[in-house]
């Protein structure tokens, strides 16, 4: 049961804590970061005393406090928590504490809800902090216009959740990217001013900020104190890190985010509310791997997190593209079953008029010209071979060359004066239109029911510009996302066993809002293993491997035309929810044999890969990568030592295997099922030559502290190293 909190309330879990002083008129954060331990009343008083800053020259005449809901009323000159107005008036919010509740959870963490009132605007704010046992802090606000507060709507321009940062956070890391090169890291010094990343694409985008991290100078995967925020919203977003010369109270900077609201999008009439997306904040003193561990633990603790072994997938796109033929696809399914595939997914091209990407979107019925008996014969054949059946859909989109667009042009999202340019020959469907929503829901329900579909690859292949709808070209970005969530929630409720993948031109919609309704993501349309090593490495900063689709493609990459060795492609695709993206009927016997061996290796190792800790080594040379997964109890590990390009150095020197215990005892071997990598040396090192033939005993002092001398691989090669604890 919630209780009345103490004046200073502390949430603690997994070595981190949040301390809030319920001061008047607006509470403030005293501390967010490392756990301060069990604090006595005197300790809490000392924490509050030392949170009082100096009064600066040429400044407001009271100490500047950085509150839970900072505005100019606090003397705060940075980005305010919220902004808005009443028909051009009442644009200076003035809030006061009106109540609070506190609950502690037996497994660690708990919840604090602080209620604020803006009497001048008739606006109430309920600000909730939930600290999970993983140590991830979820922050969400609900803004409500009071009944009887006047007839004019309150135009909400901004609502962000913000937390303070200390002076030692001097560097920033976030992400950018493009199609087939998602989640490319970028870093910079954290200086005075505002580092803001605004997303205006109707989805997080392939250049998504993804996770904004502030940290100590030189932080890396295993070193440094870091603070981070992720916005769990599948539409327009805003991330920011901000630092003013006068600081933020006794703190130095600010980290936060929320939904990017378009003008006129949220107009609160009396009795109406707006709820911000959840912003997930996390702290770690163990670098980026420490942050990843917290987010992975948060996701794995969800009641609906996938618990069954993640089936090996074959997706038909790079095998046949739009060239659908029942007999050919049945042969492909037979070959897939032979190599150990457990899920067969029919990609784009199955519905009416869909011979290219220029037509058919919106007409979600099977094309009788290509599938005269429907998809039933293929689906039944797939299941008879021991696999489940999946299907590609893009329900939020429409081609103008479609029966749907011709019958219902008013369902196409866009201005009344006319549509702007198409992208990939398509436009967004107005899912907030009740009839359009009902049509899509019924079409998907019918497909899943008729064909016993176990898995939907749910795509979203364009950015949403000019997201307005009738009447009056009202902004529709927010309600479009809400309608998507209702659509997914309703479909999953009607089909509890159905799994859904979030795909958006590859990795263009990966956030914890969509992950609350889906079972995995497609991180990139690029299967080139050189690119995939980086894409998967950084997607894993937020998501555990079992939620990330990792497919092996043909030797010549569909997206880059680069030709790579199959051993490198297979090793790269092993570290995730694995699959195949190529025409197996065209593969020679020796390639089928390697795919079959890889399939068996994936099934053997997925209990470890999909439950362990993701670890990544900090290496000076970016041409080399070392990453792996270590069992939660430390009993086993699998590492990938990979080289992307050549380096000036002839030898790597000793490299520590991250995640192992320096005092432990281990056995090590090289997994050879995928073939051995090509070496840029004539032989050795000595341990490698022995480990190729079987287990060798090596202490943790060597593996984790001194390090192993690693072989120098040729470019685009990888080595798999398995470790087990013993003794």
UniProtKB/TrEMBL annotation:
<keyword id="KW-0326">Glycosidase</keyword>
<dbReference type="InterPro" id="IPR050985">
    <property type="entry name" value="Alpha-glycosidase_related"/>
</dbReference>
<dbReference type="GO" id="GO:0004557">
    <property type="term" value="F:alpha-galactosidase activity"/>
</dbReference>
<dbReference type="InterPro" id="IPR038417">
    <property type="entry name" value="Alpga-gal_N_sf"/>
</dbReference>
<dbReference type="InterPro" id="IPR000111">
    <property type="entry name" value="Glyco_hydro_27/36_CS"/>
</dbReference>
<dbReference type="InterPro" id="IPR002252">
    <property type="entry name" value="Glyco_hydro_36"/>
</dbReference>
<dbReference type="InterPro" id="IPR017853">
    <property type="entry name" value="GH"/>
</dbReference>
<feature type="domain" description="Glycosyl hydrolase family 36 N-terminal">
    <location>
        <begin position="27"/>
        <end position="269"/>
    </location>
</feature>
<feature type="region of interest" description="Disordered">
    <location>
        <begin position="180"/>
        <end position="202"/>
    </location>
</feature>
<feature type="domain" description="Glycosyl hydrolase family 36 C-terminal">
    <location>
        <begin position="629"/>
        <end position="720"/>
    </location>
</feature>
<dbReference type="Pfam" id="PF16875">
    <property type="entry name" value="Glyco_hydro_36N"/>
</dbReference>
<dbReference type="InterPro" id="IPR031705">
    <property type="entry name" value="Glyco_hydro_36_C"/>
</dbReference>
<dbReference type="InterPro" id="IPR031704">
    <property type="entry name" value="Glyco_hydro_36_N"/>
</dbReference>
<dbReference type="Pfam" id="PF16874">
    <property type="entry name" value="Glyco_hydro_36C"/>
</dbReference>
<dbReference type="InterPro" id="IPR013785">
    <property type="entry name" value="Aldolase_TIM"/>
</dbReference>
<protein>
    <recommendedName>
        <fullName>alpha-galactosidase</fullName>
        <ecNumber>3.2.1.22</ecNumber>
    </recommendedName>
</protein>
<dbReference type="GO" id="GO:0016052">
    <property type="term" value="P:carbohydrate catabolic process"/>
</dbReference>
<dbReference type="Pfam" id="PF02065">
    <property type="entry name" value="Melibiase"/>
</dbReference>
<keyword id="KW-0378">Hydrolase</keyword>
């Amino acid at each position: 049961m919630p209780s009345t909190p103490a004046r200073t309330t502390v949430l603690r879990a997994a070595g981190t804590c949040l301390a809030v002083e319920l001061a008047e008129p607006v509470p403030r954060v005293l501390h967010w970061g490392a756990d301060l331990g069990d604090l006595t009343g005197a300790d809490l008083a000392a924490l509050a005393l030392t949170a009082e800053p100096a009064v600066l020259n040429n400044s407001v005449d009271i100490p500047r406090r950085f509150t839970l809901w900072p505005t100019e009323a606090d003397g705060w000159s940075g980005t305010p928590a919220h902004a808005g107005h009443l028909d051009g008036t009442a644009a200076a919010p003035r809030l006061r504490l009106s109540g609070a509740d506190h609950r502690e959870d037996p497994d660690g963490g708990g919840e604090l809800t602080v209620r604020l009132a803006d009497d001048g605007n008739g606006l109430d704010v309920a600000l909730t902090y939930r600290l999970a046992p993983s140590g991830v802090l979820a922050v969400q606000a609900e803004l409500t216009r009071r009944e009887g507060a006047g007839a004019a709507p309150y135009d909400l321009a901004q609502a962000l959740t913000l937390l303070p940062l200390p002076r030692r956070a001097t560097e920033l890391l976030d992400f950018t990217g493009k199609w087939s090169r998602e989640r490319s890291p970028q870093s910079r010094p954290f200086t005075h001013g505002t580092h803001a990343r605004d997303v205006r694409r109707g989805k997080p985008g392939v250049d998504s900020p993804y996770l904004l991290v502030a940290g100590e100078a030189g932080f890396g995967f295993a070193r440094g104190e870091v603070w981070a925020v992720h916005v769990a919203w599948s539409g327009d977003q805003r991330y920011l890190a901000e630092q003013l010369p006068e600081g933020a109270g006794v703190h130095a900077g600010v980290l936060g985010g929320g939904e990017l609201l378009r003008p006129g999008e949220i107009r609160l009439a009396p009795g109406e509310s707006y709820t911000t997306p959840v912003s997930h904040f996390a702290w770690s003193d163990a670098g980026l791997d420490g942050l990843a561990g917290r987010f992975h633990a948060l996701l794995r603790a969800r009641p609906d997190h996938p618990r069954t072994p993640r089936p090996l997938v074959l997706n038909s796109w790079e095998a046949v593209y739009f060239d659908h033929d029942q007999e050919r696809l049945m042969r492909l399914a037979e070959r897939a079953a032979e190599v150990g595939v457990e899920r067969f997914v029919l990609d784009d091209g199955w519905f009416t008029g869909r011979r290219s990407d220029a037509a058919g979107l919106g007409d979600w019925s099977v094309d009788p010209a290509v599938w005269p008996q429907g998809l039933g014969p293929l689906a039944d054949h797939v299941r008879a071979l021991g696999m489940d059946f999946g299907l590609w859909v893009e329900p939020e989109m429409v081609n103008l060359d479609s029966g749907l667009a011709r019958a219902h042009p008013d369902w196409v999202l866009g201005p009344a004066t006319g549509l702007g340019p198409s992208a990939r020959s398509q436009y967004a469907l107005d899912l907030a239109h009740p009839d359009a929503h009902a049509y899509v829901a019924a079409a998907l329900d019918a497909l899943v029911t008729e064909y016993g579909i176990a898995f939907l690859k749910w795509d979203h292949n364009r950015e949403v510009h000019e997201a307005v709808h009738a009447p009056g070209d009202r902004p529709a970005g927010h309600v479009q996302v809400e309608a998507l969530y209702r659509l997914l929630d309703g479909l999953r409720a009607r089909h509890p066993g159905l799994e859904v993948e979030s795909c958006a031109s590859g990795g263009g919609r990966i956030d914890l809002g969509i992950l609350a309704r889906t079972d995995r993501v497609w991180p990139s349309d690029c299967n080139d293993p050189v690119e995939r090593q980086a894409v998967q490495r950084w997607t894993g900063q937020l998501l555990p491997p079992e939620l990330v689709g990792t497919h092996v493609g043909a030797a010549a990459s569909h997206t880059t035309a680069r030709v790579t060795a199959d051993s490198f492609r297979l090793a790269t695709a092993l570290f995730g929810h694995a699959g195949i993206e190529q025409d197996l009927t065209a593969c020679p016997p020796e390639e089928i044999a390697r795919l079959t061996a890889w399939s068996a290796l994936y099934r053997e190792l997925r209990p470890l890969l999909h439950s362990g800790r993701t670890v990544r080594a900090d290496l000076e040379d970016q041409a080399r990568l070392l990453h792996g997964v270590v069992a939660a109890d430390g009993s086993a590990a699998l590492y990938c030592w990979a080289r992307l390009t050549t380096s000036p150095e002839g030898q790597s020197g000793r490299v520590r295997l991250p995640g192992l215990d320096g005092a432990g005892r281990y056995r090590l071997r090289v997994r050879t099922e995928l073939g051995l990598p090509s070496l840029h040396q004539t032989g050795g090192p000595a341990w490698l030559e022995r480990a190729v033939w079987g287990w060798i005993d090596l202490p943790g002092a060597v593996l984790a502290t001194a390090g192993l001398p690693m072989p120098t691989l040729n470019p685009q090669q990888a080595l798999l190293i398995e470790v087990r604890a013993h003794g």
